[in-house]
Write a structure and sequence with these properties.
629 residues, alpha+beta, Dipeptide-binding Protein, domain 1, four-stranded mixed β-sheet, 33% helix
């Protein structure tokens, strides 16, 4: 109770601090989105729009508060075994699912809903592609259960019927409803960071009778799901608008200040700013050009840096490209090193932060200030990773050209012909189609989104690479995806290089490194490195965090040295202009927490940069006092 009182007092202090005190809070939040969501099946959220909707319409067992601390949600309490390999959660009683009109249904949220959520997730026919091997191997029996179904569906396993395999879930998988309000998870190894898994969408509940009634239509419309979170979907018009309304039956309704969330699809960043200036939006992210333009107007005093996120942006290299020229070069370490030193990441970051572009550089896969060992040491301070994190911008013209010269010597016949490569038509339709002749210059297809900033970045990257290496050696072709990078480019392998980003799933380096191994869930380049795979496996086998992290750091250092991906920027945006009072909503580096609007306070007027700085200072002072970090 004392801690809760402190949190309320701090929140009030933040609201009223400096710069004229607080303005009246509004009950509406207006924002935009760029890419249409894949569906409303909240267990699979491949893009930001999906994640925002899922985070606000569904609750899990726990959540993170505005300090990032794990606190009760649909579970009111929990306990872990002495070795943290078994976790038991006690649910709140009398919490009801609501429908797309915000009306209570006849279904109470129970322990069975969490068991059935994973029953759905673990069925390969559900198509939940983010169920990684790490998570399957974490829960007792889950990996064997999943693989049995995969083998049955492929025809490989014929001695076991599908219905029989499905029926084995209750007896073989370590997720059990001990009674109506108690659910337990048995893990294959001690996992002190298990709570951080529970803010992932994979661990959300589903009501089995409702799921059975809608069948394959689950998530195809707002009426085809039920809602357990702070909001329900009141309106969903594809490629136009998503409206969320506050759930009147929500277990923590008193914490929901914003009653209506209106999300509009707006691809053009300039239109977004115009809408904000007209009072039609509550917040907007700013590109470098917009920051510069607004810096000369009355809006200059309202621009402030956005908080960085644990999302890391990196360039993916397609090791299996259907472009034979690029495939030859991609599999050569000297060429990848040439790209490593030949891409001026600070210059690229100027499109987001024209004043301090180095501030949003990220050199590592695992974000800083996110994962801590048993003694509170930041993983990114471990040897190997620490040096890379602190290395700054890697751009080095001489090294880049030297490495390219080595790659050309390795891969060409001395007369410009690329060994083993003949003339061909590269068919990446509808993104691109072009001819290659098996000779220098090497042709590279870089694929990007159609929005203004990404298009500018693509043009800048093209000019950068061609200038660094010379058009006689390298030529960059550009291709665009309209909506979904994975569906349009990655999965059908229609790219040579893409700019990709991945959120950090849970509080352990395996959240990313475990998905970057050979055949890993985010190994979009399709490289293979047994040495890296072994280091990741060795680290995963350790249960003492410091021992675990030391090996993971070696693995990450090797991975980055071999340039399988090229990290370049942290997520979160560089600058923003907003009416949203910062630090009033959940803070989280894992799962979908960072997209929650719970607790958000929206004021009538924009927040000034001066006020933001005061709010930030006060918040981090309190955060340090609470966490000691």
């Amino acid at each position: 109770m004392k801690a809760r009182a402190m949190g309320i007092a701090i929140a009030l202090a933040l609201i009223t601090v400096a710069a004229g005190g607080a303005a009246p809070a509004l009950d509406r939040y207006d924002a935009t989105y760029v890419a249409e969501g894949a569906s409303l099946r909240y267990f699979y959220t491949p893009d930001t729009t999906d994640q925002r909707v899922a985070a606000n319409t569904q609750d899990g067992l726990v959540e993170q508060d505005r300090y990032g601390k794990f606190v009760p949600s649909l579970a009111e309490s929990w306990k872990a075994s002495a070795d943290s390999s078994e976790w038991t959660f006690s649910l709140r009683k009398g919490i009801m699912w609501v429908d797309s009109k915000g009306q209570k249904t006849a279904y109470e949220i129970t322990a069975d809903d969490f068991v059935n959520g994973f029953r759905y997730v673990a069925d390969p026919k559900s198509g939940i592609k983010n169920l990684s091997k790490d998570i399957r191997k974490l829960i007792v029996g889950l990996n064997n259960y999943y693989l049995d179904l995969v083998d049955i569906d492929s025809g490989k396993k014929k001695d076991l019927g599908r219905d029989q395999a499905l029926a084995a879930f209750d007896s073989s998988v370590g997720i059990k409803a001990l009674d109506r309000y108690t659910v337990t998870y048995k893990l294959t190894k001690p996992t002190p960071f298990f709570l951080s898994f529970l803010v992932m969408e994979l661990f959300l509940p589903v009501e089995q009778d409702f799921l059975a009634s809608v069948g394959q239509d689950f998530g195809v419309a707002k009426e085809k799901i039920l809602y357990s979170g702070a909001y329900y979907i009141a309106d969903w018009q594809r490629d136009k608008q998503i409206v969320l309304k506050a759930n009147p039956a929500y277990w923590d309704a008193k914490s929901i200040t914003v009653k209506t969330v209106n999300l509009q699809k707006v691809v053009n960043a300039d239109v977004q700013i115009q809408m904000f200036q007209r009072g039609e939006l509550s917040s907007a992210s700013l590109s470098a050009d917009q920051v510069k333009a607004l810096g000369k107007t009355k809006w200059a005093s309202y621009i402030y840096p956005a908080e960085p996120s644990t999302v890391t942006y990196w360039f993916d290299i397609n090791f299996t490209s259907a472009n034979p020229e690029f495939k030859a070069f991609a599999n050569n370490l000297n060429f990848r090193k040439a790209l490593y030193y030949g891409i001026d990441r600070a210059k690229l970051n100027e499109l987001d932060d024209p004043y301090q572009p180095a501030n949003i550089l990220r050199n590592t896969v695992i974000p800083e200030q996110t994962v801590f060992d048993e003694k509170g040491k930041d993983y990114s301070d471990y040897p190997g990773v620490k040096e890379i994190r602190a290395s700054g911008n890697h751009y080095d013209l001489k090294k880049a050209r030297d490495y390219l010269s080595k790659a050309i010597a390795d891969l060409t016949d001395g007369k410009g012909g690329i060994k083993g490569v003949s003339a061909a038509t590269v068919d990446f339709k509808p993104i691109a189609q072009f001819q290659v002749d098996g000779k220098l210059p090497l042709q590279i297809l870089y694929v990007h989104f159609t929005d203004a900033t990404d298009t500018k970045r693509a043009l800048l990257l093209k000019a950068m690479i061609e200038s660094t290496f010379g058009k006689e050696n390298v030529v960059v072709e550009l291709g665009q995806v309209i909506d979904d990078m994975f569906a349009e480019a990655v999965e059908p392998r229609r790219f040579d290089i893409i700019n990709d980003n991945f959120r950090f799933g849970f509080a352990d380096p395996s959240a990313q490194l475990g998905r970057l191994i050979t055949d890993g869930g985010i190994n979009d380049g399709m490289y293979s490195d047994p040495e890296f795979d072994k280091l990741v496996a060795d680290a995963t086998a350790k249960t003492t965090l410091s021992e675990r992290y030391a090996i993971f750091a070696k693995a990450e250092a090797l991975f980055l040295d071999r340039c399988y991906v090229l990290p370049w920027k942290m997520g979160g945006g560089a600058y923003t202009i907003s009416k949203v009072l910062p630090f009033t909503y959940p803070r989280g580096g894992f799962g979908i927490t960072r997209f929650k609007y719970k607790g958000m306070i929206v004021e009538k007027d924009p927040i000034t940069a001066a006020r933001y700085l005061q709010l930030k200072t006060a918040f981090y002072k309190e955060l340090t006092a609470l966490t000691g970090k």
